Amino acid sequence: MFEKGNASFNFSMDDAVQMMNARDLVPKKILQLIEKDERIAYLNSDAMPEGSNVRAVSERLPDRVTDVGIAEMNLVGISAGMALAGKIPFANAFGPFLSLRAVDQIHTDVAYQNLPVRLIATHGGTTPGGGPTHYAICDFAIMNSIPNMTVIAPSDANQSVKVIEASVDYPGPIFMRIARGDEPQVYPDGADYDFEIGKSIRVREGVDATIIGAGVGVWLGLQASLRLEQEGFSVRVIDMHTIKPLDREAVVAAARETGHIVTVEDHNIEGGLGTLVAAAIAEAGVAVKLKKLGVPDEFALLGNPDSIYPEYGYDVEGVTNTTRALISPDAPAGAQG
Amino acid sequence: MTPPSQLDQKENDVTNPTTALDVDLELVEHLEDRAAHIRKQVVRGAYLIPGTVHLGGPLSATDVAVALYYHFLGFDPENLDDPDRNRFILSKGHNGVLLYNILADLGLYTFDEVFGGYNKPHHPFGMHPNMHYIRGIEASTGSLGHGLSLGVGLSLANRADGRTSRTFVMTGDGEMEEGSNWEAIMYAGSHGLSNLVAIVDFNRSTGSFRHGEHMVVDWKPAFESFGWDVVEIDGNDMTAVVRAFSQLPPVVPGEKGKPVAVISNTVKGFGVDFMNGPKWHLGSINDENLQIAIESIDRNKLARRSH
After folding, report:
1. Residue A28 — pLDDT band, cuts 50, 70, 90?
2. Chain B contact for A1 (CB, 8 A cutoff)
3. Do domains A19-184 and A201-327 have the same CATH topology?
4. Is the Cα dihedral A168, B146, B240, B59 positive or negative?
5. Which residues contact B182 (CB under 8 A, 6 or more apart)?
6. Domain residues of chain A, as ranges?
7. Does A171 touch chain B if contact means CB atoms closer than 8 Å?
């Protein structure tokens, strides 16, 4: 049943929503790696509060665990310099500032030199709240167009740890986007599934349509699929954690087999997951009905995910309605099958 | 060893040519000869290349780059990947033609390899250096304001690994208008990166402006306020260049100290009399001025040596 990934998941509408925090789990994992691998370095941008574990490790290993202050350009440049000396630096900063202010350093120092810097963009999408100065909704588009860059948006906090593990000996640079925190958990605790960068995971089987998500888009798609099942629709859900390189094979198979594609991402609908998926399908010559969900090409309104996702129609209800309308344009919203 | 900050400033005053009793004169003369040769090769290369080439910057920076590559780096073409090597980052990457000629003179390439096909697809040499195309290039540069952060990262990693190697980063004075430099300078001073040396090639000219026409900065107090030691030299006087690099304080494994900024007062287009100021940021060499340029380089070398 699961062509990629060996897990078997039995998701149910009755499952309680578990919230997790990648911003806690990711640093923990990196600090574990630091202890056993001298190549690993961890660089932060004003994120080592007094009393934190990372501050304690930094005091012990000041040249491998450091905070550069509020200086994203320097964060990325220093990381590239450390990589030139053979280190594998994890560079952690707010996604909006990492992807916008430091993009020249990411492009030139990291990607052009093809160095194994792991950029960890926290506060992804609209999760920071507070308006466009703090939203990171252009990052996929920017990173997708930078050669050598691998772009990853783990679907939940546990998976973000798997990305860190997989990243250590992965060639070239990686941009990994995580949320601000308190993001819904997709996979059950302890779920043992194969994770490979660049290989998507078929989270739910389905034949009427496919929802392809990245980051929180996977959980939103999963919830929509469970609801639509109640109405008699069979909707596949794909966890496209790696946006670039895109798992084109899974995308084209979904297009051929289900004929209706919905993409979900907390990102501008131009240039991100949806754009890559649409292009892959068009280039394969498959005719489908397709809808890209996310922030429309505008500066999103003030708010937070609770208000922004419904505003632009990519909350669970919005994804459900869009998918249903694509499969069955005449079905009334909320129809029970 | 005297820390650079305590050097007698008179010795480093560009208006007071030095008597050079404290430096190895044989070394200075050897480096002067190589510098003159490199300047000529830059000019000859420019003659071969259609269109314009960066000339003013490569010629102002030649003496410092030569002193580093031929002596102070311990640059070893046979052992380019030595993890303990000293490294040079040319942050002002548009001066790549200077490094290419140095690498060629050191035996890694021939002049023809550098300039045949220059700046064309599938040819390794072009306007900005690429570390993957060219052996001996430590970083791919060109976008200004990047080198100092790379240098900080290299210095941090080397200190973490207990190495005593240094990282030298050369920027242009115009390049220092990029704010990212000052992020790196703030970090390096705050974290005591004594294994980092910044060289500001202060040739007093960007592509548009002469220094003081619009931007004003006093380098010494600027760097000192960020916790750096500062040495000011005439960067086209090989004796002063050799003295400055000879007197760098030692790097002690695991120990912090002050990073060092060498403010290298230079002349844009140095060596070629007719090249001066912003209009020779980029230029071309024709049949008429090739010979004038070569003769000028020889004459200026001898004039300097008479010090």
Report:
1. very high
2. no
3. yes
4. positive
5. B226
6. 19-184, 201-327
7. no
Domain A201-327: assigned CATH number: 3.40.50.920
When pLDDT is averaged across residues A99-125 and rounded to a whole number, the result is 98
Closest CA to A198 of A148, A156, A150: A150
Does the A19-184 domain belong in CATH 3.40.50.970? yes
| Closest alpha carbon within chain B to A86 | B157
Min Cα–Cα distance to chain A from B90, Å? 13
Other CB atoms closer than 10 Å to residue A306's CB: what's the count? 10
| pLDDT at site B2 | 36
Pick the closest to residue A130 from A333, A289, A308, A263 (CA basis). A308
CATH number of the structural domain spanning residue B268: 3.40.50.970
Residue to mutate among B84, B180, B191, with most A CBs inside 10 A, is B180
What was the ipTM of the complex prediction?
0.93
CA distance B198 to B166: 11
Q: Does A7 touch chain B (CB under 8 A)?
A: no
pLDDT reading at B146 higher than 70: yes
Contact of A282 with chain B, judged by CB distance below 8 Å, is answered with no
pLDDT digit string, tens, across residues B104-116: 999 999 999 999 9
Spatial neighbors of B36 by CB under 8 A, at least 6 apart, are B271, B297, B298, B301
Q: Which helix (H) or strand (E) holds B127?
A: none
Q: What is the pLDDT of residues A287-304, one digit of tens each?
A: 999 999 999 999 999 999
What length is written for chain B?
Answer: 307
Measured between alpha carbons, how far is A229 from A241 in angstroms, rounded to an integer?
24
Cis peptide before A296 (omega within 30 of 0): no
Domain that holds residue B137: 4-305
Contacting residues of B for A109, CB less than 8 Å apart: 139, 146, 149-150
- Number of structural domains (chain B) is 1
pLDDT for B307: 54
Give the DSSP per-residue string, B26-90. Answer: HHHHHHHHHHHHHHHHHHHHHHHSSS-EE-HHHHHHHHHHHHIIIIIT---TT-TT-TT--EEEE
What's the token pair of residue B89?
């980052």
